Amino acid sequence: MKVIDPFLTMKEIIIIVNRIGLIKGYDEKRVRETLNLLLRDRKNEFQELADTIGIPNTSEDWQVIILKICLDFEECFKIWTDEVEPDALKNTKCMTIMREIAKGKKNISSVFHTQNIAYTICTEFHETYKRTS
Prior knowledge:
- By secondary structure, this protein is mainly alpha-helical.
- 70% of the residues lie in helices and 0% in strands.
């Protein structure tokens, strides 16, 4: 049994128990269903991203964390291609994601490959989510 830090707020405890809640703006039940559908075809890609970013596949709901990172990466892509300058917090978030994706890579092709996986997962998530009900 895991020991929960007594100084965590109730909100933080709920997030630990239910990581699917990290995916904001979507119905939790549909997100879980969509994630399960994605994992049938994209399990290897989820695993590759987890290995790249350093998220152990033994942690509870590690796939949700990867999906959240992919959705955050999509937001970064929108920021990079938008005409409007993002705020400093969004810039920092994107740079952190890029750093995690690029860490340990030996060439730019490896970075692009990992970015492509993240972008593909988020695109397929949106397409699959639309079809669930």
